[in-house]
Design goal:
With 259 residues, the protein is α/β, with parallel strands linked by helices. Helix content is 41%, strand content 15%. It has a single domain, classed as TIM Barrel.
Length: 259
């Protein structure tokens, strides 16, 4: 039996239902639930579903490198922790910069300088300190540049790994998104083995199309065996669109990660 737990992003499945009903449906199927931004959500209604929330976006605005933006990120990270406490959500997700409603960076970056790397490490240390005090974990997600998120700094899994290892805190881990990593880097099994204890969460969707495992080129059954073999005990979350019926898509996801 696998040592990890399965979760599903409610933003991308059961799209014909109101958001709270999506959460209930995912919960009824035995999965944990993930959400993106919380500012437009009815938090009391989410709590009332009884769902097990595993991750939520851990900031509202800001980035890792610009002084004014850093203050926005830290303030909204602290506000996010208060919401995470209400939801009993252990994980809060970050990106290299804030994204707009189309997933594009608000301030695109063509070249990431050495000074930006140093500032990002300094900012993430402060984020980790917030997480340590609250007893929760921030995760830094890798994103792909060619298809979905051009202009995002610190986008590769190699980048997020370097930042997480530089901060060296139990309250800052990687959100290793294998959909993005397949497009940006490939060699997923060796990537998992290399990242090892730096991983706080795994997110999955297939390539191309960003749909459930089993619809594209990634051998997710081999990924599942690898996660089992390395003793990964965190969350594996489907952050992908449902191809066809959402219930069947979630069942397909579960099938590919049952070892």
């Amino acid at each position: 039996m696998a040592s990890y737990q399965l979760s599903v992003c409610a933003e991308m499945v059961f799209l014909d239902l109101p958001f709270i009903e999506r959460v209930k449906r995912i919960h009824e199927m035995g999965f944990g639930v993930e959400i993106w931004g919380w500012a437009n959500k009815d938090i009391d209604a989410l709590v009332a579903t009884g769902a097990r929330f595993t991750s939520m976006t851990g900031y509202l605005t800001g980035n890792l490198t610009d002084d004014d933006e850093i203050q926005q990120l830290l303030a909204s990270a602290e506000a996010s922790l208060a919401v995470a406490e209400r939801l009993n959500c252990p994980g809060l997700n970050l990106h290299g910069t804030d994204l707009d409603d189309k997933g594009l960076p608000v301030k695109p970056v063509e070249v990431v300088t050495g000074a930006m790397w140093l500032k990002a490490v300094e900012t993430l240390r402060k984020v980790a300190q917030l997480g340590e005090r609250a007893g929760r974990v921030f995760t830094l997600e890798n994103l792909n540049l060619p298809v979905d998120h051009p202009g995002t700094p610190f986008a590769l899994a190699a980048d997020t790994l370097a930042l997480v290892e530089a901060v060296n805190s139990s309250a800052l881990k990687m959100n290793l998104d294998l959909y993005h990593a397949q497009i940006g880097e490939g060699n997923l099994i060796e990537l998992i083995r290399r990242c090892g204890p730096a991983i706080g969460e795994i997110q999955v969707a297939d390539v191309p199309g960003r749909q459930q495992p089993g619809t594209g080129e990634i051998n997710y059954r081999a990924i599942a065996r690898t996660l089992h073999d390395v003793g990964y005990r965190g969350t594996v979350a489907m952050e992908g669109w449902a191809k066809g019926d959402s219930t069947a898509a979630l069942q397909q996801f579960r099938d590919h990660f049952t070892v």
